Amino acid sequence: MTTTSLQGVPQFGRRFFGADDTFTRIGTGALGGKAEGLLRVHRDILPALDAGEFPGIEVAVPTLTVLATDCFEAFMRLNDLDPLAFSEEPDGRIAHAFQRAELPPEILGDLRALIARVHTPLAVRSSSRLEDALDHPFAGVYGTKMIPNNAVDTDTRFSRMVEAVKFVYASTFFQKARRYLTSIGQDPRAETMAVILQEVVGIRTGDRFFPDISGVARSYSHYPAPGSRPEEGVVNLALGLGKTIVDGGVSWVFTPTRPAAPPPFNGFGDMLKKTQNRFWAIHMGQPPLPDPIRETEYLVECGLDRAEADEALAFVASTYDPSSDRLRPGIAASGPRVLDFAPLLTTGVVPLTPVVLRLLEISERHLGAPVEIEFALTLDRRRGLPARLGFLQVRPMRAAEGRVAVTQEDLGRKDVLLASESVLGNGHLESIRDVVFVKPDAFEARHTRRCAHDLEGLNRALAAAGRPYILIGFGRWGSSDPWLGIPVDWSQIHQARVIVEATLPGMNPDPSQGSHFFHNLISFRTLYLSVRHGGEYTIDWAWLDSQETAAETEFVKHVRTRWPLTVKVDSQSGRGVVRHEEQEVR
Amino acid sequence: MQENRPYNPFEMARSQFDRTADLIDLEPSARELLRNPLREYHFSIPVHMDDGSVKVFRGYRVQHNDARGPGKGGIRFHPQETIDTVRALSMWMTWKCAVVDVPLGGSKGGVVCDPHDLSLREQESICRGWVRQLARDIGPVQDVPAPDIMTNDQHMLWMLDEYETLHGGRYPGGFTGKPVALNGSLGRTQATGYGLVYSLREALKELKIHPEETTASVQGFGNVAQYAIELLSRIGGRTLCVSCWDQEDHTAYAFRRPSGIDLEELRSITDRFGGIDKGKAMDLGYEVLPGDAWLKEKATVLIPSALENQITGDNAGQIHDQVRIIAEGANGPTTPEADQVLQERGIFVIPDFLANAGGVTCSYFEQVQSNMNYYWPMDEVLAKLDLKMTAAYIAVSDLARRSDLFMRDAAYVLSVNRVVAACKDRGWI
Question: CATH number of the domain at A5-30+63-200, out of 3.20.20, 3.10.590, 3.30.1490, 3.90.1200?
């Protein structure tokens, strides 16, 4: 059968697995940013890996087919969806309308042929044109749907896949996406969407399908561990689907050049409380109540007991022995399990860290910039090898540029509003006069959603006025767990130029690792400072309260200072400071 | 448009079968069985006319062969309907169902009448009378009628209603071509036209022609033509010329635009019989040419989608050298003499009963859905149609290549072999 090749990507030939090509397309339009990144991995990065360099680990981009952007455009035209898509209708209405719409007939045969041959879970992923064209992060902006794809009859599997594609199409026009595009100065009408249909890396055990490990690795760390340099990078690992990491949940963080470095916890008790104890999997059992417009329709969150029953902990967990107050790698003994990935990171049975380092190195060389990669790993749960690493994404990080020097002495000056030795970004600002902060006296973890709502309103007003501001709050900004922080998305706080993550005794999680949110910080050159209560440097709340109140709600206050504040963040030293110099001092 | 020559379609159908039987060295018992329909019903339908008179109409139903499953075939209302036409069509239905591998046999029916001269009430009476004559011999598990020339979904509903009244139940799978709102299938309207393009798409791949480089010239502008043009455009092709019958001038015209016709534009000036308004077309900048200009167009593909007997031994030589493929949307548009010329010229032909099998395939889907009383979304219907038509094309093409046969011969060989196998498996021969 003749195949038409565009950009060197062959047309889908109605065989998914078992075909010569594991990266194919349907349609003739653009592939979108995510798919372009994967194409780079498939074509340039992975071939640079020597075949025998890591025996026992197969590294590949999981088989995929891309529905190119012309399929999306044909779908929108065929169903005349533009008026609804750009209306003020709520997301649910838009999603339902997209579900009722019809896919273009010219792609149906290919989709049907694909699903007729594939009986394993599929990830239906967004790959938008603008995320390729722009140097802005798009992670978490559009939808991704994982489908179990295990129904016996092809009709059902086909329907589920079609629903997932339509869901991803609809997510192009959800409020979050449109607000985000507007916040980066883009017209939502300029966006067009490709969709990746990709094999999910994982193993099925019982009613759950999940990878043994998901990971995000960065070649430059904005949170270098003590003794590590930013250039040594950082890796986040989680058991199960990578949703844990992308959503800002609890994951294991380490410097890849020092995988066995001591954990940054206050003892094993602290570790037991602050390591991952739940994981995400694709639910393969009894189909749930249908909800095609819910992104997590087929996902299930499980506890470690399930993972242990699935024999998935041997290489990722250690066991706490209270009698010796020690953590022993593996699960041979009984006792509380801690997901510290020690068996993997310390024994080298599965050379995950060397593989990740090598992939970071090759990726950085090819992209010419610090990179972030996503991957998923399955391994032999008894022996470790053979293992399979699926390379899921690569994107350039916007690394810190320039040098801003902040000394230790700078942090201790009398005119300091707040200071930190844990910062993100690099820069020097002297024009900000607006500060929006969550009132420490009024704050309670149970009200974080209301805080988010109030903040959105203030952000909108300040954006309309063109006034950048400093934002101060408690817990992890952007956390999807409202008990760990304030659950805002970027578009609700995008006007902030400086974000301060503070803590209180009742809200004291580790600094946020939500990768998609903090990429926004770097992309917009938003500066970040972390200030922990009870630490050496605190926030001068009294001074803030003495400033003119511009707006106030039950939980949040907006003040306007008389003179512009000075903000300096030095990513190399890891120090940052906000000072309220009086005008005459300058 | 070519003038209709008198010819006997049943003889033509038989001669096509005989040729195939010779090719595969078919045993005499199978030949004898398949040269003739298994059953024929000839009957009279008395109708009380609106003017108070009683008129008697002749009706037919021919069941050619049902070894592979219940019979399938349309019902025509036509003033010149003959039993030989119905026989031929029923035989072609057997082959059509077999080539696309749906589990159905071949049937066809008709009534000698002209609906233009009948009121709706009179047509309804004919429909109900037709069913009353055949109620014991048709139905979901025997023989499933559908619309054809000058019958439509309303006729099917009247017939279904009569059948259900007589049988005391609901049997939506007894008739196809019903409206979507009343047990019809989504996709039915597009099916024949789209099905043609699925086959064409595969032929283009085989001939290493990109759809984006494909141009077409189409005879006819009815349902089949319009949806074929639509899907061809969606996959990147362009239609340069369409022809249709002009009821007022009693002749055919061809409408041409070198940059490609605008389907929606032409649809907006077309009547319900597929006739394009000549004056409005000229105003829109189309060249208006004699009807046979479609045949001579410099295009990659010709799609005859009107009547039988249009490409003949006399005019096949006028086809432009650039034409690579003929995809037969109509039944029997190419005569055996023309076939010879096309073969010599190296023009690839997708035979009618393969190219236009999308309609019967979707009828089969409607039957299945109706029998389950559960209806599929459009995506599912069209996706299944694509796969079914593609598989059918590939099977015929593979056979043609392996056995060094012309596509039409390969299609017949495949079909006949399948039907013969079914007859043998049942112990009939």
Answer: 3.30.1490
